Amino acid sequence: MFMLSLQTTGLVGLAVAENPHERLRILYTKILGVLQNIPKDAAYRKYTEQIVNERFDLVKKEADVQKLQDKLNSGQIEEVIVQAENELSLARKMVQWKPWEPLVEEPPSNQWRWPI
Amino acid sequence: TVRPKNEVEHKQLCAFGEYVAEILPKYIQQVQVTCFNELELLIHPDGIIPVLTFLRDHTNAQFKSLADLTAVDVPSRQYRFEIVYNLLSLRFNSRIRVKTYTDELTPVESAVPVHKAANWYEREVWDMYGVFFANHPDLRRILTDYGFEGHPFRKDFPLSGYVEV
What we know:
The complex is a heterodimer.
Chain A: H1 20-35, H2 43-61, H3 65-72, H4 77-97
Helix pairs in contact in A: 1-2, 1-4
Chain B: H1 7-23, E1 28-33, E2 39-43, H2 48-57, E3 65-73, E4 81-89, E5 94-102, E6 108-109, H3 118-129, E7 133-134
Parallel strand pairs in B: 2-5, 6-7
Antiparallel strand pairs in B: 1-2, 3-4, 4-5
């Protein structure tokens, strides 16, 4: 694997990210900031903080891009960046939807019975 | 011959189902795993967009691909139509099914803002069953003839239709 200045990700539409560590650091800090707006006992906050902190620690420790990709085991670094952006937008929407509240409405008793 | 039971996959799917149910208790009414290792989430209709966006965007559940969107008509129930979404995760190579319910007159949120693929599928469900999708960009008939009246896949629609051809 030699690092030329002309690399490609191999995926259509995804450009090579220069300085992925910085980008990931910004994204993960933003996600953790948004998660502070969720009540502490919500399962979404707990699990997402766990995932983000794990990935953040790996990003902080590992400076080499190739080794970081192997350790994260989640496809290319550019894909990890896209995934972090998705998680950020999801966290913002979750603050509005509040899915940790109890069930909105019970279904009628015969709704999910199969066979009828 | 019978397909051998894959207990490990069954356990993984049960664990994942419990994980999702813990994160979204507001909308998920029931979670089940069939004996063929198919995970199904049974949802309240208000929760379509939150649940589909969660399944698409969350890191542990990257179900980026909407494989199918259909409906099932069970006329004896109060909410006779059951809308079914089949999702596929390419990162984790797994599938999940999300089911909601509605009756003939209640509109359902369109899944098009979440998955662009839902466009024609929702047109088909509207055409064949009569389930109206709110906020759909272009909801019109797709399979029936131009002046066709009625919704053919409903159980009370006769086999040879109402019009003689």
